[in-house]
Amino acid sequence: MVSVKYEDLTEAFDFVSFGGPFEHSAYISLDTGTIYWDTDSGEEELPDDLGESNRYVAVPHKNDLDLGRNLVLRFVASELPDQYATVEGFFRHRGAYARLKELLGSEGCLEAWYAFEAAETSTALRNWCRENDIQIVEDRGDSPA
Prior knowledge:
The protein is α+β, with helices and mostly antiparallel strands. It folds into 2 domains: about 1-60 and about 130-135, no CATH class; about 70-115, no CATH class. The chain contains 5 helices and 5 strands. It has helices spanning about 5-20, 70-80, 85-90, 95-105, 110-130; strands at about 1-5, 25-30, 35-40, 55-60, 135. The strands form 2 sheets. It has a 3-stranded antiparallel β-sheet with strand order 3-2-4, covered by helices on one side. Strands 1-5 form a two-stranded parallel ribbon. The radius of gyration is 17 Å and the shape is elongated.
């Protein structure tokens, strides 16, 4: 089983999730735990066998882990059920997250949203790692999770 630092994994996850699906990608070597970032700039050298080998696993996009729109709607259903239809409507147009954050701020729920999102993201990433035989090394004290 390969080990990856949790901080490195979350940075790669954020990079992959920054754009739409398939816009950004990162891969974990199942042999070394090295994370390779596939960027347009080509600054990082990628392994020659990246596309052909099963020894690399793609870091998921947030939508792959159900951490996009559905996560927001789960939170709103729980915390602001009267606003559910409004928030659902946000996702029919660009700028949904900006409108969401404005609404959550006005309702006093923005910090609760950030905590919920962080906890759900952590759980989903840890489950994904277990499914892919990747051991997480915690940043504090470098002890395995």
